[in-house]
Write a structure and sequence with these properties.
By secondary structure, the chain is α/β, with parallel strands linked by helices. It contains 9 helices and 7 strands; from the N terminus they run αααβαβααββαβααββ. It has one domain: Rossmann fold (3-Layer(aba) Sandwich), CATH 3.40.50.150. Strand 6 and strand 7 form a beta hairpin.
């Protein structure tokens, strides 16, 4: 039996294996988690220069996701629509081009987002086809039964009180109106792999409302919605949930 702590003829003293690599890996992991924290924080409430960059990226990155989500609802020319957590405002622009005789409203908790969305949609605002305000999904600045459609693209992940917030959306919808929730990540879907998945599983999930398809359905149903449909794009890890307010409500 060889004592590895002492030199042996014909054999170099043993050293801890990959010690430098282990330290570098640990440091990189901590840096990644710190950056991930920052990105998640900015997604929740963009602020400052980094927030403006995040808003620009949202407009680019979420475009195809938004198109896929919107394909699951019918939008009339005269619809009055609200986009909750409107971010950089690209969804509002898309909706205004579809509801050509309607009006599109946007609400966001971040003042930076409101400013960015107003810049993106200046031409619609100028002709009173769009209006964007600072506000919270928990206390919407709308009377009961005033909206035909509410959309939320990648935003319910950060809402403060999901049951209450879904009931608030139900309140402002007209009878027969619909709520559309879309996200590129959900519990049970296709997620990041390797070290990024570990960071996500152990760290980021605590700051996000990650739901299974059944949990999405339950939220809609408990808030009063009917005809709830769940769509999954399995190869992308995307989810879309649609619920309607009964025409008798």
């Amino acid at each position: 039996m060889i004592d590895d702590s002492k030199p042996v003829e014909g054999r170099a003293p043993s050293r801890p294996k990959n010690n430098g690599t282990t330290r570098r890996s640990s440091l990189q992991s901590r840096k990644s988690m710190s950056l991930a924290d920052k990105v998640i924080s900015q997604c929740w409430k963009p602020a400052g220069l980094f927030g403006r960059l995040v808003l620009w990226d949202m407009n680019q990155h979420h475009s195809k996701l938004t198109d896929w989500g919107l394909s699951h609802v019918s939008i009339k020319r005269t619809d009055r629509i609200l986009d909750v957590g409107c971010g950089g405002g690209r969804t509002i622009n898309k909706l205004a081009a579809i509801a050509t005789e309607g009006k599109i409203h946007g609400v966001d908790y971040s003042e930076n987002s409101v400013a960015a969305a107003r810049r993106t949609n200046a031409r619609w605002i100028d002709i009173d086809r769009a209006a964007i305000e600072h506000g919270s999904v928990s206390h919407l600045p709308f009377a009961e039964k005033t909206l035909d459609l509410v959309t939320a693209i990648e935003t319910h992940l950060f809402w403060p009180d999901l049951p209450n917030d879904f009931r608030e959306l139900f309140r402002v919808l007209k009878p027969g109106g619909a709520l559309l929730i879309v996200a590129e990540i959900y519990k049970g879907g296709k997620h990041l792999e390797g070290v990024r998945k570990k960071i996500f599983d152990k760290h980021l999930a605590a700051n996000m409302n990650l739901l299974t398809p059944d949990e999405h359905r339950e939220l809609f149903t408990n808030a009063g919605f009917s005809d709830v449909q769940i769509f999954e794009k399995l190869d992308k890890g995307w989810i879309c949930a649609v619920g309607r307010k009964s025409s008798r409500r």
